[in-house]
Amino acid sequence: MENRGEKFPLLSQINWEKVGGLVPVVVQDWENGEVLMLAYMNRDALQKTLETGFAHYFSRSRNRLWKKGEESGHTQKVKDILLDCDNDTLLLKVEQKGVACHTGRRSCFFQSFGAGAGAGEVVLDKEKEIQYNFLDKLYHLLLERKMSGDPTTSYTALLYSKGENSILKKVIEEAGEFTFAVKDGEKREIIYEGADLLFHLLVTLAYKDIHWEALVEELKRREGVGGLVEKSRRKER
Length: 237
Description:
The protein is of the alpha+beta class. Helices cover about 45% and strands about 15% of the residues.
């Protein structure tokens, strides 16, 4: 087996045990020094970055390796990689194509709580939003509602404020309404109730910080595996 550390010494220099297999990565604009984002790399993501010259990360919510800009086209060409003194944090200097943040801002660090912003005031940039697929856009919106939504104006923020039991109760309720719609056989009602069920499933996943693509990856993993075999594997876990 090839020793990956021989080709890319950086792979062996990182204290992978200390970081639990995921090294934090600060991403900085190559030209002006602006901090663009914070992400994580496992060993495979770092190797892919070193091999291709473009930033690859490991998504904790999706539980998979991904290339920055694989959907939006807003890639990061790596110009330099620096390792800190403790061998547990990376600094990537990149040539950013487009913007770094999923909100459409140049940087993910756009919310200011400093002295110049006033007590608790959030100052937002006004930039064009990246065109992600709809489910991904909705998922990130749910995360925003969970973290900073106003329960007096947002149904989702109110649901999050009530906690896990209320969220799960809504999933059960919507699942029941969906099954009744299927039994009634009205296509329009099936679609309507199915959308409600899907929405509350996404709400629940966001509550647990699990990206919906993690479910897709699990289905891909099962591809070609018979249902009876899959069930027997679950019992073995």
